[in-house]
Each structure stands twice: as structure tokens, then as C-alpha cells.
């Protein structure tokens, strides 16, 4: 499994696949397991050029809304795909200020 090779080569990082529901773009990340989801969201906001008026919502496995304070390793352990060992996240932007 490719994810096992990645985890062996980078034991402190988590392989993540992020799908943007708006653009249908798929992005791959290898992130530190100790950062929170909130910190990862800041990285995503910069990457997708989201306006300040838009809120960003992130789901695991297309349906589970995740607490922003959770460390990435906890999210990975709870929601990783058991077949390939990757964490699949879906992001959705929503206009929150009118």
C-alpha cells in the first residue's frame, strides 16, 4: 500500500486526499500529525483562494463534520480508509455573510 510506504518514510505525517466540492479539484497533502484541523484549514484556505465572506466546512468520508480542535492524528485514526490507509476529506465553501 502506498500509504504504508508514506507512513514508514514519514512517520510523523499523515497522507490526506482533499476533494473540493465546488471545483471538483482533488488535492494531496502530507501533513504533520500534531497540527489541529483548524491549522490545516488555514493551509487549505490559502490554497483554494477563498474569500473572507465564505466559510469553509470540512467533512470526513463525505458526511462527518469534524471538530476543528482535533489533532490530525486523531482524525486520521478515526476516519482513514481501511482499504488504502488514506484520509479522505471533502471541503465545501459557503457564503456566511449575506
Distance from first to last alpha carbon? 45 Å
What strand line-up does the widest sheet have? 2-1-5-3-4
**What's the shape?**
globular
Count of strand segments: 5
Q: How would you characterize the largest beta sheet?
A: 5 strands, mixed
Strand portion, in percent? 25-35%
Low-confidence segments: none
Global mean pLDDT: 87
Structural category: alpha+beta
- Cα-based radius of gyration, to the nearest Å: 13 Å
Number of helices: 3
| Helicity range | 25-40%
H/E element sequence: HEEHEEHE
Structure overview:
The protein is of the alpha+beta class and 98 residues long. It is 29% helix and 34% strand. It is built from 3 helices and 5 strands; from the N terminus they run αββαββαβ. The protein has a 5-stranded mixed beta sheet. β1 and β2 (26-32) form a beta hairpin. The mean pLDDT is 87.
Summarize the structure.
By secondary structure, the protein is an alpha+beta fold. Helix content is 29%, strand content 34%. It has a five-stranded mixed sheet with strand order 2-1-5-3-4.
Give the helix/strand layout.
Layout: H1 2-9, E1 13-20, E2 26-32, H2 37-48, E3 54-60, E4 64-65, H3 72-79, E5 87-95
Parallel strand pairs: 1-5
Antiparallel strand pairs: 1-2, 3-4, 3-5
Quickly list its features.
5-stranded mixed β-sheet; 5 strands; 3 helices; globular; 98 residues
